Amino acid sequence: MTATLCEHRPSGVDAIRSARKRNSRRTRIVIPSLAVAVVGLFMVSVLLGSFTVTIPDFFRLLGGAEIPGATFIVMEHKLPRAVIAVLIGVAFGVSGTIFQTMLRNPLASPDIIGISYGASASAVFAIVVFGAAGATVSIAALVGALVVAAAIYALSRRGGVAGYRLILVGIGFAAIMTAVVNYLMTRTDVTTAQEALVWVTGSLNSSNWSRVSILGASLVLLLPIATALSRNLRGLEMGDDAAAGLGVPVERSRLGLILVGVALAAVATAAAGPVAFIAFLSGPIARRALGGKASLTAAAMVGALIVLAADFVAANMIPNVSLPVGVITGAMGAPFLLWLLVSTNRNGTAG
Questions:
Q1: Residue 161: pLDDT above 70?
Q2: 21 pLDDT more than 80
Q3: Does residue 314 contact residue 262 with C-beta atoms inside 8 Å?
Q4: N or C: lower Cβ tally within 10 Å for the chain?
């Protein structure tokens, strides 16, 4: 009997080691591939489109050269727009993955559970009621996201935060915030409503270097915190009891992850509005690419890819018209959401 166990034990260990090697090899291939794709699509967004510029001219512009027409269009419009696209993609991708992994539900992303809607309602309120503009609107969006997230957490916390309860409370808040936005839009003039519409769909049309600097500084602060807190994310993914058995401080870890996830979604929304479905799509796509493993790095790159691709289509699909990027991401995300709801219901794994 003992001999038989000894004979079988090495094969089991070898299988585990082999699986780990395959996963490690897959990660080493996927992450660099995503990075190359992000760089390539970033260059496409800057160099091509309605106004094209050659690669040598682009590097001349970066070096400070003055090229009539190209200097303004590339350096003051296309380049900051592409940088903002990458930054909000990273922020939304990491934020969505934190929520989805921690709560063990792909529906648990900031754009589904009401956090982005809170930012939109607050921004529209500031525009319509107080005539706010520029940085003031961004600050209002940030505050709105944080307030709504705090309310969702407080109402869903009874007996410990359960994923399905937080999602249901968040969907309720999303409905309330949508009603608030619709009411405000009907009570203002057409010009103000057009300005407020950006904060309903999400747009990169007003990107500038000031927003790049604010968003970049925010991510420099928040991403290391998210990386440090993500060490407990795998434990939380296994459930509260398993996480506690592994020595994970469940409530403290969950609260910290919620705070950083909300902050990431809030600063991205403050920079470009609630770009739909980026947080929702990035995590599941990255997980599938890695064979079922959650990765903040991969999700960040997938988010950047989605925003860059969607914005390039939005800016160039109709001649002389630059659509809000949220229109394209909404069209991309809605079918995935419907498929997810149908497949989840069929498998009986909702909540």
A1: no
A2: no
A3: no
A4: N
Q: Considering the domain boundaries, does residue 6 fall inside one?
A: no
Rounded CA-CA distance 205/173 in Å is: 28
Note the pLDDT tens digit of each residue in 246-301.
Answer: 667 777 888 888 889 988 998 898 888 888 889 999 999 998 888 888 889 999 99
Domain that holds residue 342: 35-347
- Identify whether 149 is part of a domain: yes
**CA atoms of 152 and 175, how far apart (whole Å):** 13
Does 8 fall in a domain?
no
Structure tokens at 168: 């249901």
CATH number of residue 45's parent domain = 1.10.3470.10
Measured distance CA(252)–CA(74) in Å, rounded: 45
Does the residue 2 lie in any domain?
no
